[in-house]
């Protein structure tokens, strides 16, 4: 399977916030992350980078 992990970038540091993400939906002020067996997680922010080879999505959190 090709699930991805999602990290949030804060300054020069990155924190993993979710693993095994199978779906990602961009809404006007947030990103909705979905796994197979957990409730969706909503993160206020925007996508900064996607690395398809490493299966990583980098978000930039908004206050």
Description:
With 63 residues, this protein is an all-beta fold. The chain is built from no helices and six strands. The protein has strands at 4-10, 13-21, 23-26, 30-34, 41-51, 56-61. Strands 2-1-6-5-4-3 form a six-stranded mixed beta sheet, with no helix packed on it. It is globular, with a radius of gyration of 11 Å.
Observed structural traits:
six-stranded mixed beta sheet; 67% strand; mainly beta; 63 residues
Report the order of strands and helices: EEEEEE
Topology, number of strands? 6
Major β-sheet annotation: 6 strands, mixed
Q: Could you tell me the mean pLDDT?
A: 93
Query: Termini, distance in Å?
Result: 33 Å
Strand content: over 45%
The assigned structural class equals mainly beta
Number of helices: 0
List the helices and strands and how they pair.
Elements: E1 4-10, E2 13-21, E3 23-26, E4 30-34, E5 41-51, E6 56-61
Parallel strand pairs: 1-6
Antiparallel strand pairs: 1-2, 3-4, 4-5, 5-6
What is the structure about, briefly put?
The chain contains no helices and six strands. It has strands at residues 4-10, 13-21, 23-26, 30-34, 41-51, 56-61.
